[in-house]
Amino acid sequence: MSEPVSTRPVLLAMNLDHLCQVVADLGFPAYRADQLADWVYRKGVSDPAAMTNLPRKLAESFDILTSRVVARRESRDGTIKLLLEYPDAHRVEAVLIPDSSRATACLSTQVGCAFGCEFCASGMNGLGRNLKNGEILQQLLHLRQAAGRRITHVVFMGMGEPLANYQATLHAIRAIIDPRRFALSARNVTVSTIGLPAAIRKLAKEALPITLAISLHATNDELRRKLMPAAAKAAKLDHVLDAAEAFYASRNREITLEYLLLDGVNDDIACAEGLIGIAHRLRCNVNLIAYNPVESLPYQPSDPKTVHAFLGRLKKRSVNVHLRRSRGADIAAACGQLRRNASR
Fold this sequence. Notes:
12 helices; alpha/beta; DNA polymerase, domain 1; 35% helix; TIM Barrel; 2 domains
């Protein structure tokens, strides 16, 4: 059941100029906006009662977290997955991946996904709706509170296609890299896309030194139509690669290619050679990813021997390739699995 809609302004949806104006409209001096931002963005506090240097009336004048955690899973490797519910009862997932001094937040940009890649749980029930920029940022605050540590990196690789929710994603990025808000380095922010050429070219024109990641998974249009039919219909692979080259040319920042290894599907010699050709065309890093199986889907991860041979072939041909180890397999860490399991 949906919750009553609040009439209070949503703090995370505002830039600081807007926040200052609202604080002034409430009759408080401008420095109070900086204090409020400090509590939320830098200290990760969302409880007005904990904001001890602020008048309670001011602290309670904003909605900070309109979403709530309805499920939490923590993996043996430290990965934390949260299932969040918004007031309209829509749910999304957010994941925190710790690695030594790094803490990477994996954020969703949509409820579900319209593209329905054949191996992914996120799009199995289609697209619910786009998330607003403040709703995207709430995930970051929830993850910081769940982990009890500062987030150092952000990847837009959760549920949904970030470039299909372009403006909200862009606004969230600007908040994340704003020195007066979350204050992350832009170089620690990655946007992952299935490959929407027009949106990639649009992003290339933004003054944001972020990383672009392309969820490739197939090295030719025929296989792409099988694995990612909506993405293949939206654009041919060659057009995606042209846009990626334009993105690189706009800032001389290497592209990342994400490649899930699926047993007997895209892990043979021909696919390796195709990936080598693409990697030589682009200035890029290649991340080979171990697949987290999804119940009811027919795909399985490639066996270790095949992975080793595939990786070795790429390295021998001077591809900058890394094997990304699977994280959180014991907590349904693949995108959409926890949400799907919880809805049954």
